[in-house]
Amino acid sequence: MAVSLREYRARIKSTESMKKITRAMELIAASRIIKAQQRAQAAAPYARELTRAVSAVATFSNVDHPLTREQENPKRAAVLVITSDRGLAGAYSSSVIKETERLTERLRAEGKELDFYLAGRKAEAYFKFRQRPYVQAWTGFSDQPTYDKAAEIGAALIEAFLKEQGEDGDVDEVHVVYTRFRSMLTQEPTAIRLLPLEVVEGEEAPAADELLPLYEFEPSAAQVLDGLLPQYVQSRIFYALLQAAASELAARQKAMKSATDNAEELIKKLTRIANQARQAGITQEISEIVGGVNALADAQAAND
Amino acid sequence: MADTTVEHLHVELVAADRTVWSGEAAMIIARTLEGDIGVLRGHAPTLSLLSASVVEIQVANSNELVVVAVDGGFLSVAGDRVSILAERVELAEDIEVSQARIDLEEAKRLLDSSNEAEQRVRHAEARIRAAEKVS
């Protein structure tokens, strides 16, 4: 017997308590996903109305706004990486980081230098450990982002984008890497270009009878655009954060489910080995007793 | 859209993270950067920026008045459909006047040192006004 029965029992016990923990985490993640999805749904009307308004303004004025202007010779790009704060979510954060590396390589190949903006402790830890520089990091909200956080991030990115070329901290493009929530089963890491804004994304083409009306702008089209676009950017970031949150929870649920399954398997296996060990112990004991009795009997027979 | 069946304005009052109120309304009063605006049925399509202020919605077929404080945002009117968007929207019933007063004092103190303070003062004042209107 290599390992004693007692040790097997201890291992089964610890695996059992681990299983309880992973099971609890799975259930927690599952219940939070529903909330995260509801939050994403609740935020949808704002994004929709905002998109409508932006496209309305864009159609009626020649959009020439600093936020939509393409820099002729982009030299620097900012990348916002959205990961989770906590681990135990399978490959969730690392696949976002992998996507980031791909984007980084592509942008570097185009001759751009990069500034990194990070959301989530995992990204921060990754950069710190490799001693790679980043501009700013926001942490502590990955599973339930608030609009305020999105606004804060948006403000920082817009400020960097609006700086003149050559100024310290200026960027000419802003990219976002986040995880898109497709369904409970699939979440894909995605990289999108946030700034300069591509005017009017035709997410759904307006029906023929729903042509955009001729708006009056107050105070003026340019000023309305000035007010709208930053909010549009922030709402896009908020959307990305919400999607990332839902994805994180889904990934965690999946990871914890397979951890629970694995624990179950391990317990089964260990129980079998433990039973075998127990059997072996009993057999040995019996053979020892029988052997002892035989020896005694032989000794007595010799005495007689 | 079927204009003939729509007797009233359809209003969507939306904050960044939720829809605060949506329904039919007879009239809306809001304050844009250029001054107060009232919207009735058949208003010309308009898109205007709101200042931090009180928005009043007269609910259709009742005397009910929905009063909210917004922190800016904008108002868009098109074909008897009105959407009011702001990052922060608070129903007057949910506003705590005492807290709003504290915020106002704080913002006033900062008035000289920061540019955002003016916006905060306006927002706090709007919240107080909204709360007083319903009480």
TrEMBL record, chain A:
The keyword Coiled coil applies. Signal peptide: none annotated. The keyword Zinc does not apply. It is a peripheral membrane protein. It comes from the Bacteria. Residues 249-280 form a coiled coil. Keywords: ATP synthesis, Cell membrane, CF(1), Coiled coil, Hydrogen ion transport, Ion transport, Membrane, Transport. CDD domains: F1-ATPase_gamma. It is found in: Cell membrane. InterPro entries: ATP_synth_F1_gsu (IPR000131). Pfam families: ATP-synt. Its main location: membrane. Belongs to the ATPase gamma chain family. NCBIfam families: ATPsyn_F1gamma, PRK05621.1-2. Produces ATP from ADP in the presence of a proton gradient across the membrane. The gamma chain is believed to be important in regulating ATPase activity and the flow of protons through the CF(0) complex. F-type ATPases have 2 components, CF(1) - the catalytic core - and CF(0) - the membrane proton channel. CF(1) has five subunits: alpha(3), beta(3), gamma(1), delta(1), epsilon(1). CF(0) has three main subunits: a, b and c. This is ATP synthase gamma chain. It comes from Nocardioides daeguensis.
Automatic annotation (TrEMBL), chain B:
Keywords: ATP synthesis, Cell membrane, CF(1), Coiled coil, Hydrogen ion transport, Ion transport, Membrane, Transport. Residues 97-134 form a coiled coil. It is found in: Cell membrane; Endomembrane system. It comes from the Bacteria. It is a peripheral membrane protein. Residues 9-88 form the ATP synthase F1 complex delta/epsilon subunit N-terminal domain. CDD domains: F1-ATPase_delta. F-type ATPases have 2 components, CF(1) - the catalytic core - and CF(0) - the membrane proton channel. CF(1) has five subunits: alpha(3), beta(3), gamma(1), delta(1), epsilon(1). CF(0) has three main subunits: a, b and c. Produces ATP from ADP in the presence of a proton gradient across the membrane. Belongs to the ATPase epsilon chain family. This is ATP synthase epsilon chain. It comes from Nocardioides daeguensis. The lineage of its organism: Bacteria, Bacillati, Actinomycetota, Actinomycetes, Propionibacteriales. The gene is atpC.
